[in-house]
Amino acid sequence: MLIPKKNRIQIYENLFKEGVMVAKKDFNQPKHAEIDVPNLHVIKSLQSLKDRGYVKEQFAWRHYYWYLTNEGIQYLRETLNLPPEIVPTTLKRHAKPEPTRPRPKGQGMDRGPSGPVDSQRDSYRRGGPGGPDKKGEAGAGSADLEFRGGFGRGRGGGGPPQ
Questions:
Q1: Do 63 and 72 form a contact (C-beta atoms < 8 A)?
Q2: How far is C-alpha 145 from the geometric centre of its chain's CA atoms?
Q3: Residue of 39, 127, 138, 162 with fewest CB within 10 Å of its CB?
Q4: Which helix (H) or strand (E) holds 55?
């Protein structure tokens, strides 16, 4: 497809600046969501880059997602005449945020209306004062199982088949 050089350069600049690009699979959309270029031009130019191995493509829920590869970064640097100091946003190192202080225990949501949540849980399992221990009675082998024939498919139906 013939794409004007002005549009192709805009697409390449945005792709290099961000390192990724998203486009809705709508070939009739007049403009792309991020740049002032027809959506069809964006899709077709990035498909061309994908065929040459410069971007990786993902498609989900009617949207294309493209990610620059290392070869794609080199190609766009040569095409756009950019110095090696300029890198896409996806490759920039972000400053580490300050580590947050741990919340002290015993405040906020750790406590219920009548004390810590663990004591409430234990009282529920006991079934109230003097009640049976619900946790101790649960599990394999805690109940007597009784098997009756005649239900479902298989043997034990009773008499001969009809």
A1: no
A2: 44
A3: 162
A4: strand 55-60
